[in-house]
């Protein structure tokens, strides 16, 4: 398969999980603890993927300096962006309950939530394109991990959007746009960085990993712990183990 087509295709696949999750969360009333449990599972999946796929790839390609620098930079960029979005009303964009503000509660919060969801998805998608750049073929474990984590993200966030009074057109417009952006970001991860040095590519891979970890702690774990309490840690551990096993089996 042509690498350009491959990177775009798998970016769309991983982003499509957001739309699937959004459909379930919007049209089906799923109990909060169930959503949170799946969110915890997705958190464990992503933590494993960024540890054993992204950071390992960055380290092997360019060493500890590139991996550490990129990782810290990615986390700082995400935290700064998330802080701004929180001020504009997107702090609880992945919460499934009544935490999300409506436009009546806070004008502009809908756009902030959409932008926040986009920022959450871009680092993961770039990582897919970079995995093709690293190894010549897509990392099945990375795609599977992102897909599995995107399902509960879309589910939880769309359930919260529905409770905040946002329309189906808005919800699916947001998630479809993000799915398309994920495909383009994955393409960029391959095509744009193909011309850069191994150090830059490795650092960028680590940037994606750092941003993903910050996103998990800021937006996914709070939903999991708030609804499932002690069970959250069990689901995170299970998700981590499943993703780790997938990494080893898929090679």
Descriptive labels:
0% strand, single chain, 82% helix, mainly alpha, 251 residues
Brief write-up:
With 251 residues, the protein is an all-alpha fold. It is built from eight helices and no strands.
What can you tell me about this protein's structure?
Helix content is 82%, strand content 0%. The chain is mainly alpha-helical and 251 residues long. α2 (32-62) runs antiparallel to α7 (198-228), α2 packs across α8 (231-250) and α5 (140-163) packs antiparallel against α8. The protein is globular, with a radius of gyration of 17 Å. The model has no long low-confidence stretch (mean pLDDT 84).
Structural class: mainly alpha
Mean pLDDT: 84
Instruction: Tell me roughly what share of residues is in helical segments.
Output: over 70%
Rounded to the nearest angstrom, the radius of gyration is 17 Å
| Main sheet: strands, sense, barrel | none
Number of E strands: 0
Beginning-to-end CA distance, first to last residue:
19 Å
Give the ordered list of helices and strands: HHHHHHHH
Low-confidence stretches: none
Percent of residues in beta strands: under 5%
In DSSP terms (H or I, runs of 4 or more residues), the helix count works out at: 8
Shape: globular
Blueprint of the fold:
Blueprint: H1 3-27, H2 32-62, H3 64-87, H4 109-135, H5 140-163, H6 168-191, H7 198-228, H8 231-250
Helix pairs in contact: 1-4, 1-5, 1-6, 2-3, 2-5, 2-7, 2-8, 3-4, 3-7, 4-5, 4-6, 4-7, 5-8
